[in-house]
Amino acid sequence: MKINEIVTEASYGDDPKSRMIADLGRKLMDMSASMKITKDTPDEAIEKSNKMSAFGDALTRWGTDFGPKNLNDVVKLARVTPAEAKEFLEIAQKAKPAKLKGDEVEPEEPDTDDDFDDEDDDAMAAKADRAARGR
Q1: CA–CA–CA angle 70, 74, 76 (5° rounding)
Q2: 71-129 per-position pLDDT tens digit
Q3: What is the 8-class DSSP label of residue 107?
Q4: Domain coordinates of the chain in residue numbers?
């Protein structure tokens, strides 16, 4: 069993609704994190981005043991209004699935070198000292 299977099972069980809600939360957090902020960005836009991220974070905890159990809990946890929650859910549902970092990278070949066959650090340091002294 791989670690991502363990984490997924432990966090969300077999409930597809919880997974879908958590995915919506991840989309919101990714959108907020990728927002370009400059010195000219209005405070309202930054505040909205922060709220969207907090709301997304609360959604990712949906269905977990200590996470929110209903939308009112999410609203309270994220400190957003019900109108903002509705807006954020609509934004997340319209968003394309996020491309995970590393998806476009081919997997590396496994490292087959046995590091224990190499000289230890002390032996390499002694060899370097001898070479530096010309011996």
Answers
A1: 115
A2: 899 999 999 999 999 999 999 998 876 555 555 556 666 666 666 666 778 888 888 88
A3: P
A4: 3-94
Secondary structure of residue 44 in the 3-state scheme: helix
> Whole-angstrom Cα distance, residue 38 to residue 60?
28
Region of 17 on the Ramachandran plot (φ > 0 left; ψ -120 to 50 alpha; else beta): alpha
Residues 6+ apart with CB under 8 A from 121: none
Would you put residue 60 in left (φ > 0), alpha (ψ -120 to 50) or beta?
Answer: alpha
Residue 122 CA to residue 85 CA, distance in Å, equals 60
Neighbours of 30 (CB within 10 A): 17
